[in-house]
TrEMBL record:
It comes from the Bacteria. GO terms for cellular component: cytoplasm. The keyword Transferase does not apply. This is Cytosol aminopeptidase. The gene is pepA_1. Belongs to the peptidase M17 family. Keywords: Aminopeptidase, Hydrolase, Manganese, Protease.
Length: 459
């Protein structure tokens, strides 16, 4: 698996990007034998279609990439990634690609080479690309590596990625990037400092912990908090089997935060980065926490547990309270938190919450630029009453089922300390294979955030 561009001086096959409506004009400008071959093969310029045109010696003289129409492109992302998978192996140089699309299409080409091969060899695309002129190839390679890191972590099952392995992955990233890493674990220390993290994870074989990574010496302070529930049985409110099958991805927030952190550090952004990952497994045992328990969080707030399957907001609460103690310039949490977000927006959109209109504007502009779609949902303050049970300060699972993603976000905001805070309720999984996104784990929102940070933090 190679997520890099070919060197610019590599001999390359010209790859012409042709829209459906422009094919006739393109053919008119070609030698007769090329035009005849293209017509005989039935190439129409449809989106994602590829065609190699042979030379007299049986090699490839040139290739065509169908770019469809504006209508068909609006229904998809990474339009050339499918072409990368359909072409024979070799090195290609793009011709005719609109300049404004070059960066996104080049990244999609890199991502089409991703394959998760820990347990079985796969068949990713073999066609390499020379980075289009004007594209920052090194930056895109860093982004592709960060996305691959996120995907690998999500795709790894819980028997090989529990809290121990997640901590080991963090150590490897810290060592690679020159970051500092500490880990709070052990029942006495964790229960004292992060009681909710301890309570959620204490029934598991592998100990719960709070992983902290810091990097950078100057600039604004950015804190990233990622939900690291390595597997979620639902606890004593046990999930049915049909709902438990994908729970290896319940650490998708941590995986996405780590992918974003890799990008930030590898690109040497001028900021101070802090990554907080509460790493637990929500398991069933005699010492598992129970429905009806009332817990006290790190910041002293009390929480009534009305569903042990709403554990993600509990471990995030302690981490957010800890993050807020340093008064960051921006704090962002990412979590595979609620099914309600999926019902509302499906698997492809990243719902996010913020009270900062400037942050929202910058993020959405960035999301459009890099083709990483997000959608703002409201911190709707009138719903605060829904998370106040009366017997404790907060309820971790309000009854009724209304506004489940919003009430979860409001719960988290209570621990964020009033600082500039945004929460992403992501899915972290591609249920159906698509260009540059095979079925399986996927990052959501990280590329949009990376592109927005210079504006948001005035870098």
């Amino acid at each position: 698996m190679s997520l890099t561009f070919a060197p610019p001086d590599t001999p390359a096959i010209p790859l012409y990007v042709v829209e459906e409506g422009a094919l006739a004009d393109w053919l008119d400008a070609q030698p007769a034998q090329i035009a005849a071959w293209v017509r005989a093969m039935g190439f129409t310029g449809a989106l994602g279609r590829a065609l190699a045109v042979p030379d007299a010696a049986g090699g490839i003289a040139l290739a065509l990439a169908g770019y469809g129409s504006a209508t068909s492109r609006a229904r998809a992302r990474f339009h050339l990634a499918g072409v990368a998978s359909a072409l024979p192996g070799g090195t290609y140089r793009l011709e005719g690609l609109p300049e404004e699309a070059a960066e996104t299409e080049a990244l999609g080409w890199l991502l089409s080479h991703y394959a998760y091969e820990r347990y079985r060899e796969q068949s990713p695309a073999k066609a390499r690309l020379i980075a289009p002129e004007g594209v920052d190839a090194a930056r895109l390679e860093v982004i592709a590596a960060g996305e691959a890191l996120t995907r690998d972590l999500i795709n790894t099952p819980a028997n090989d990625l529990g809290p121990d392995a997640l901590e080991a992955a963090c150590i490897a990233i810290a060592d690679q990037q020159g970051a500092r890493l500490t880990c709070t674990r052990g029942p006495d220390l964790l229960e004292q400092k992060f009681p909710l993290i301890h309570t959620v994870g204490r029934a598991a074989t592998q100990a719960p912990r709070l992983i902290e990574m810091t990097w950078g010496e100057s600039g604004p302070n950015l804190t990233l908090v990622g939900k690291g529930v390595c597997f979620d049985t639902g606890g004593l409110n046990l999930k049915p089997g049909s709902s438990m099958g994908l729970m290896k991805k319940d650490m998708g927030g941590a995986a996405t935060v780590l992918g974003l952190a890799h990008m930030i550090m590898a690109l040497d952004l001028p900021l101070r980065l802090r990554v907080l990952i509460p790493a637990v497994e929500n398991a069933v045992a005699g010492n598992a926490f129970r429905p009806g328990d009332i817990l006290t969080a790190r910041n002293g707030m009390t929480v009534e547990v009305n569903n042990t399957d709403a554990e993600g907001r509990l471990v995030l609460a302690d981490a957010l309270a800890y993050g807020a103690e340093e008064s960051p310039d921006l704090m962002i949490s990412m979590a595979t938190l609620t099914g309600a977000a999926r019902v509302a927006l499906g698997p492809d959109l990243s719902p996010y919450y913020t009270d900062d209109a400037g942050f929202a504007t910058a993020l959405e502009r960035a999301a459009d630029r890099v083709d990483d779609p997000v959608w703002r949902l409201p911190f709707h303050t009138p719903y605060e009453a829904m998370i106040e049970p009366g017997i404790a300060d907060l309820d971790n699972a309000p009854s009724g089922g209304f506004a489940g993603s919003i009430t979860a976000a409001l719960f988290l905001r209570r621990f964020a300390g009033g600082f500039n805070y945004s929460h992403f309720d992501i899915y972290g999984w591609c249920p159906t294979a698509a260009p540059a996104r095979p079925k399986g784990g996927v990052g959501m929102g990280a590329r949009a955030l990376l592109d927005a940070l210079p504006e948001v933090l005035d870098l």
